[in-house]
Amino acid sequence: MTVPIDTPRASEAPGPTAPREDTSPDGPPLVDGEVPVIAFDRVTLAFDDNVVLQDISFTLLPGRMKVFLGASGSGKSTILRLVLGLLRPDAGRIWVLGERVDVMPEADLMAVRSQVGMIFQDGALFDSLTVRENVGYRLFQEGDVPEDEADARVDEVLGFVGLSAFADRMPSALSGGQRRRVAIARAMAARPRMLLYDEPTTGLDPITAMTVDQEIVKVRDLEGASGLLVTHQLRDAFFVATHEAVRGPDQAVQFVPASAERLARTEFVMLKQGGIAFEGTVDALRRTEDAYLRAFLS
Amino acid sequence: MKTFVEWIKNALLEVQEYLRLVSQVGRALVSRPFYGRDVVQQLDLIGVGSLTVVLLTGLFTGMVLALQSGMTLDQFGARSIVGRLVSATMVKELGPVLTALMVTGRVGSGIAAELGSMVVTDQIAALRALGTDPIRKLVLPRVIAGTVMVPVLTVVSNGVGMLGGMIISVTQLRVAASIYWSNVVDGLYMADIWMGLIKPVVLGFALVSIGCHVGLRTKGGTQGVGRATTNAVVTGSVAVLVLDFLITKLLISVLY
Ligand SMILES: Nc1ncnc2c1ncn2[C@@H]1O[C@H](COP(=O)(O)OP(=O)(O)OP(=O)(O)O)[C@@H](O)[C@H]1O
Ligand SMILES: [Mg+2]
User: Fold this and answer.
1) Section A35-61 average pLDDT
2) Does A147 touch chain B (CB under 8 A)?
3) Given ligand 1 and candidates A69, A77, A234, which is best to mutate, with the most ligand atoms within 8 Å of its CB?
């Protein structure tokens, strides 16, 4: 059996991973009549006897974003790995874009992964490839996109992250923040339906962090991509939650305070001791009385 | 006692994982996608890159073989047949084994270090996240290149080994070059040549796949990469010698 490894514009591709309309018994649980793009159902995972996640359940609806907060080692990166099927849970069920990724064979997972972009915590750039080859990896290697179209897209995303001048450098010749931005460009290049950000702004200066935040907002609001954002930087988390990207009359992108409807589209999830200690909107988070959460926020 | 049982259990587990990798490589070979450009790159890295060390090894092995066998043959007054001993020993044994050992040291370790550091820096995970199967992209091209190039390098090594033997025969043993070469040809039977070609195919496959396996199972940061590199060389070299014995035994019963 051959699996279609990639589709150039995943969001337009029909296929095995398009969300199902029906509620077949092994489809994800519906939320308000909508099919979530991610659904965790009582997921448990332990490394030897270190229980990292215990009965975790949450859902992500299309076009929404969930921000994961939590102490170091609370399992945030682990959740992102589970979404991509890079790790398998010990118990529980996981649906991504309508498919059960926790039991799916590795070969079939490629079709799901081709619609998801992931920014790894420390970049994970391929250090034998140039910046351009890294960013265009999926387009050049796995896609059937014409070469010049792929080149144009690479230039475009490198422009987004402000690294056009660095296209021919090797990753080892970049600063930490530049590497992070290349990783973001790589994840965005194939226009995935969903993005997983693992601490995209940690270790960046405030100005660069702001451009990264704006990028995240832009991808969410203008391209309609769903997302999970893991971060320690509350400033960035709040910016992403409370802003909205709109196109002005001259097509320029502007960032304005989010409307009430938009505000509800981003939720915060706080992980603590293997479980979810809080889940709710930015307002609920600000009003919380929970002592641990207050300590975390201050 | 408990630790010994543990050790056996771990070793069996490791062998099982290795066999799983080998079967994945087999499946990747017969299905698409196939990363041809990576294969070409690895053929160059493994083949051309190992040429110098293999040339030197072959040359000096041939020379020392001629010196040693010349001394032994003198006891029987049969110095003139030194060419037979050099060719038979090079082609059947020393060519394949020494080439494989040198490639293990140079390539097996390099593969383990490269794949190992890709594991600890999440590059393997990133590859999978981008929809690429690391077995197809990284392991298969290296295994193909090793399986093709170790035999080629072995033939080269045999060639310079015989040349080295001739240099010693002519300059030290005072055996004429024409006599040396006719003995070299007389010393070789078809079965020897088969043995000399089958061995490096198996050894090349084994040493590269072991390097890949050890690299991909790296755990524990940069320290783990160091351990993986050492492991790849030790395990690879032992496997080369053990396999050489087993193939020899098998082929003797089949070919001769
Ligand atoms: N491959 C692994 N083997 C064993 N334990 C692991 C492995 N990966 C993660 N862990 C453990 O799982 C726990 C959660 O790790 P994870 O990387 O998800 O944390 P995190 O919330 O992302 O932390 P940070 O904010 O520091 O990145 C940690 O205690 C870690 O030690
Ligand atoms: Mg993490």
Assistant:
1) 92
2) no
3) A77
Q: Judge if pTM exceeds 0.90.
A: no
Residue B133 alpha carbon to ligand 2 centre in Å: 23
Mean pLDDT of B224-235: 95
pLDDT at A194 over 60: yes
Tell me which H or E stretch contains A96: strand A91-96
Q: Is the pLDDT of residue A23 over 80?
A: no
What is the average pLDDT across B221-244?
95
- pLDDT at B39 (0 to 100): 95
Note the ipTM here: 0.84
Q: Are residues A293 and A94 in contact, defined by beta-carbon separation less than 8 angstroms? A: no
Residues of B in contact with A176 (CB under 8 A): none
Percent of chain A with pLDDT over 70: 91
- Which of the residues A1, A5, A140 would you substitute to probe the B interface, choosing the one with the greatest number of B C-beta atoms within 10 Å? A5
**pLDDT at residue A298 in the model:** 75
Q: Which residues pair with A192 in a beta bridge?
A: none
Q: Which two tokens stand for residue A212?
A: 């990264």
